Structures are given as structure tokens and as C-alpha cells.
Amino acid sequence: MDRPFTFINSAMSADGKISTKERKQVRISGDVDFDRMDELRATSDAIMVGIGTVLADDPSLTVKSEARRAARKNKGADENPVRIVIDSKGRTPLDADIFIKGEGKRVVAVSGSAPADKVEELQQKALVIRTGDDQVDLCALMKELNSMGIKRLMVEGGATLNWAMLSNGLVDEVYSFVGNLLIGGASAPTLVDGSGFAESDILSLELMSMEKMDEGVLLKWAVINTG
Ligand SMILES: NC(=O)c1ccc[n+]([C@@H]2O[C@H](COP(=O)([O-])OP(=O)(O)OC[C@H]3O[C@@H](n4cnc5c(N)ncnc54)[C@H](O)[C@@H]3O)[C@@H](O)[C@H]2O)c1
Ligand SMILES: Nc1nc(=O)c(N)c(NC[C@H](O)[C@H](O)[C@H](O)COP(=O)(O)O)[nH]1
């Protein structure tokens, strides 16, 4: 396989929403699930999010546990995994938390449609990888990440990036915490948005495990027939 082993980790409401219709973040996970997510971050080579998530949530994507950061350091790695933003048009704010908080490498993946002056500014903060004309070419990007030594990649959403990764056959497993709340709203982001699969292309999953966690349930799925 010339791409990293890749999993999506997400938290959704009982009706499948990952935030409100205003794209406002909701606390879906309990403490146990957040700690599990931290462990996943600490054991990944890189974490990837879409620009929509950066603009909506301004996440830092750092490992929160000091002990886990120290364990990474002991193994000769940076305290935090490589933080990657999928940002076709180079819209990542230069003061985003992803740049300000925590040590470690950052990658901003842009396309040919990103303005040259913004790309230059982003290059002061991150390694900028350019693929695709109008949108990031995720398949080409994954090959490049693999050749950089990224073998285990965590995708933390949002809805559009999840769709783009899944529909390009780039995801091996999906971990979904289902919380005890209903968010509603036809336009609220779900675990997988985008344009949706044609009936003949719908992805099949194999249930790997289910576990009661906090006030919800953690479902782990393997994606069948990834590329
Ligand atoms: N509950 C959770 O686990 C969780 C996790 C992450 C985000 N979220 C929520 O998700 C929402 C953001 O999701 P979203 O769908 O708006 O944005 P997103 O984070 O999925 O980013 C999507 C953007 O990525 C860009 N992009 C670049 N190249 C692309 C490509 N090849 N294919 C597709 N997109 C490409 C596009 O500009 C697109 O608009 C926020 O409300 C956030 O709070 C929830
Ligand atoms: N696992 C999870 N459970 C939730 O209940 C929730 N709202 C998110 N939302 C994901 C979102 O992208 C967050 O913004 C980052 O998880 C924040 O990451 P930081 O703390 O800034 O490192 N994720």
C-alpha cells in the first residue's frame, strides 16, 4: 500500500450529526471518549482535518496528556503528530491554533487555486504541499505523506473531508462515538456529507467492535474494498 493506514475518528449525536446547523461545535463525547481520542492522536504519525473544521472550531490538534507527549519524545518523535489541513484555496488563518499551540510539524495541503501570496505566508508556518488544480488531489497527497514516513494517519473530520477521503477509497477504518443527544437539522453536518454515493457504490462496513462508553457507544468499523 503506497498510502498510510488511515482511520476516521468522529463523535456524532444519536441522529448522526457532528455539529449544529450553524456548524457550532457541540460536546458529544464524555471524558472517557476524549481521553481515547487523545491516545489515538498520541499513537498516530499525523492528524488531518478539513479547512471547514479549522474555520469553525480552530482546533489545536495537540496531544493533551503530558505523559503521552513524553512517551512520544522518548521514542524520538515530536510531542505532537504532524498536523495537516486540507485547504485547497489557502484559507487557513495565519493565527490558527494549529500553528500557535504545541511543538511539531504542520502541513497545509493546497491546490493550484491557492493565491501565491497566501501560500508564501503559509510557508512561514508549515510545509505547504500543492496538488490538484482546483481542489487538493487527496490520492496524490496520500502518496506524498507516505513517502514522508507517515504510516498511520488519523482523520478528524469534518463531514466534507470524511466524504472526500471515503469516496476516494482512502480510509481503512471508521471509529464513531455515538453520544446521547439529538441535534437535528437537515443542514447540520453528519459523519459523512459530500454528494453521497450512487446506489451501486455504497460502501460496506464490517463491525469490528462496539463498546458502551460514557453515556453513549463507541462503534469501530472496517471499510470493505478500500483502494
Ligand atoms: N464531532 C466531530 O467529531 C467533529 C469533528 C470534526 C469536525 N466537526 C464539525 O464539522 C464541521 C466542519 O465540517 P465541514 O464539512 O464544513 O468542513 P471540513 O472540515 O470537512 O472541510 C471541508 C473543506 O475541505 C476543503 N477541501 C479541500 N480539498 C478537498 C477535497 N479534495 N475534497 C473535499 N474537500 C476538500 C474544501 O474547502 C471543503 O470545504 C464543523 O461544524 C465541525 O465542528 C465535528
Ligand atoms: N471527538 C470529539 N468529540 C466531540 O464531542 C466533539 N465536539 C469533537 N469535535 C472535534 C473538533 O474538531 C474539535 O474541535 C477538536 O477535537 C478539538 O481539538 P483540540 O482540543 O483543539 O486539540 N470531537
Automatic annotation (TrEMBL):
Catalysis: reaction(s): 2,5-diamino-6-(1-D-ribitylamino)pyrimidin-4(3H)-one 5'-phosphate + NADP(+) = 2,5-diamino-6-(1-D-ribosylamino)pyrimidin-4(3H)-one 5'-phosphate + NADPH + H(+); 2,5-diamino-6-(1-D-ribitylamino)pyrimidin-4(3H)-one 5'-phosphate + NAD(+) = 2,5-diamino-6-(1-D-ribosylamino)pyrimidin-4(3H)-one 5'-phosphate + NADH + H(+)
Family indicated by similarity: Belongs to the HTP reductase family.
Entry EC number(s): 1.1.1.302
Name assigned to this protein: 2,5-diamino-6-(ribosylamino)-4(3H)-pyrimidinone 5'-phosphate reductase
Oxidoreductase among keywords: yes
Ranges where the Bacterial bifunctional deaminase-reductase C-terminal domain occurs: 4-219
Keywords, alphabetical: NADP, Oxidoreductase, Riboflavin biosynthesis
InterPro entries reported in the protein's UniProt record: DHFR-like_dom_sf, Rib_reduct_arc, RibD_C, RibDG_C, Riboflavin_Biosynth_HTPR
Pathway as given in its UniProt record: Cofactor biosynthesis; riboflavin biosynthesis
Subunit annotation: Homodimer.
Pfam name, any one: RibD_C
GO biological process: riboflavin biosynthetic process
The keyword Mitochondrion belongs to this UniProt entry's keyword annotation: no
Species, as recorded: Methanococcoides methylutens
GO molecular function: 5-amino-6-(5-phosphoribosylamino)uracil reductase activity; NADP binding
Classification via NCBIfam families: rib_reduct_arch (TIGR01508), ribD_Cterm (TIGR00227)
